[in-house]
Amino acid sequence: MSLPRAPKAVVFDMDGLLVDTEAAYHETMIIAADAMRRPLAPDMCHRLIGLPWDQCERRLRDWMGEDFPTGVFHDRVAELMAERAKVGIALKDGVAEILDALDDLRLPRAVATSSGHASVRTHLGAHGMLERFDAVVAKGDYARGKPHPDPFLEAARRLEVPAEHCLALEDSHNGVRAAGAAGMMTVMVPDLLEPTEEMHGLCVAVARSLHDVREWLGHAAGTERMERRHA
User: Fold this and answer.
1) Given this model, what pLDDT does residue 150 score?
2) Adjacent-strand bridge partners of 11
3) Domain 9-20+90-229: assigned CATH number
């Protein structure tokens, strides 16, 4: 497997792709809902993956009733996640290696996430990864969150690379939809959600891990160099 072309920049999602936060959010949401005596089914948690909070809030009220105290729920989940963060939430497999490869290829890279900047600083900063990105686009930096293309378009703007020349890496369905709508070459690296037929249609590939993506980037760059030599 290889990418159809060598990208000029790479845009990463954060939760579930760079940091193993999606599983932690899943667990803390269930704990918080149980404590409120308003149980939240696991499949409901899955359907919130990749959504900004305002959309999560609407879905929670649809499922749990208009009287569900979404603000209380949000604050409790945030408290539980802060406790998890103190212990440390692991990076996903292959993060350091793919960033090393991007350094070697001299490719700029950005984060485009539905989380806020404080969350980015907590989760990436804990691993010394913040300085390895040329731009961070987080909640508050765009008008519409995923599945709208705004986060990815803003990342491309900040990197000064046209969106169609960027590679987007996502683990969620809504993230893939957003990247596809932005016109980016998109690869899904599944975390809690399996790729659907729709995802396969929107992506140029589905990777098992970031290690696969790193190999594909190297192969695409090598192919491009060979084509230039023979042009």
Assistant:
1) 98
2) 110, 168
3) 3.40.50.1000
Residue from 98, 89, 90 nearest 210 by CA: 98
**Residue 37 to residue 34: CA distance in whole angstroms:** 5
What is d(CA 70, CA 57) in angstroms, rounded to the nearest whole number? 6
Model confidence pLDDT, tens digit, residues 124-149 = 999 999 999 999 999 999 999 999 99
pLDDT at residue 174 in the model: 94
- Report the candidate in 159, 160, 145 with the shortest Cα–Cα distance to residue 48: 145
Domain ranges in the chain are 9-20+90-229, 21-87
Confidence of residue 42 (pLDDT cuts 50, 70, 90): confident
The 10 Å Cβ neighbour count of residue 129 is: 19
Tokens of 188: 């899904």
Yes or no: say if 147 and 168 are a contact pair by the CB < 8 Å rule: no
Mean pLDDT to the nearest integer, 20-29: 89
Integer Cα distance of 123 and 1 in angstroms: 31
What is the C-alpha R_g of the chain? 18
Instruction: Give the burial string for 180-205 (b: 16+ CB within 10 Å, else e).
Output: bbbbbbbbbbbbbbebeeebeebbbb
pLDDT in tens, 80-102: 988 888 888 999 999 999 999 99
**Phi, psi at 191, each rounded to 5°:** -120, -90
What's the rounded Cα separation, in Å, for the pair 13 and 111? 6
**155-164: b (≥16 Cβ within 10 Å) or e:** bbebbebebe
